[in-house]
Amino acid sequence: MNLVRLYKRLLSAFGPQGWWPCSGRFRPREWEICLGAVLTQATTWRQAERALERLWKAGITTPRKLLECQGLEELIRPAGYFRQKARRLKDLAKLVLSFPSFSSFLSGVTRDQLLQIKGIGPETADAILLYACRRPVFVIDAYTFRLASRLGIPARTYHQLQSYFESRLPKDIRVYQEFHALIVQLGKLFCRPKPACDLCPLKSKECPYPTKP
Hints:
Layout: H1 3-14, H2 29-39, H3 45-57, H4 63-68, H5 72-75, H6 82-97, H7 102-108, H8 111-115, H9 122-132, H10 142-151, H11 158-168, H12 173-189
Helix pairs in contact: 1-12, 2-3, 2-6, 2-9, 10-12
């Protein structure tokens, strides 16, 4: 599978996605990305945005303020699983504050350190590394797994699929960010559990799925 060609076709179909979206209300900007990566777990981005809006209105815009917040669960209720997510966010804030500065967190935090936080798995950790820390790590999610299966990509685990993508793409942070966002867009519009293959931009060009019996 030529992933560079696939990326270019999706980019042509949907245009640049500009992901990760940030409101600019949190300081530093990358902290908002970290918050969003946790809040969007098992929910829609719209619900995560509602929770972010409530945090901003309450003045909870920095790791220190979040760690000291007494009503965090209620503030992030729109994102669902608010008790678990509140614990994850506080643990993440503790990790951030264990570094001399936020910039040193961005440059120095490891994947293993993020994964040690209960409730932060590979997808969330890699989203933080790619979008906040700007590390060349390809994020795998449910949309990527679904697309890979329909494309016939021989990868079954998170690590296998991540290695497949990373070994076939230029090690370019912007490409990783855009490609992941484009796959999400494809998954939302066309490559759904019940796919809309007739309308898909990959129909009869890159994807063999519509022709399978």
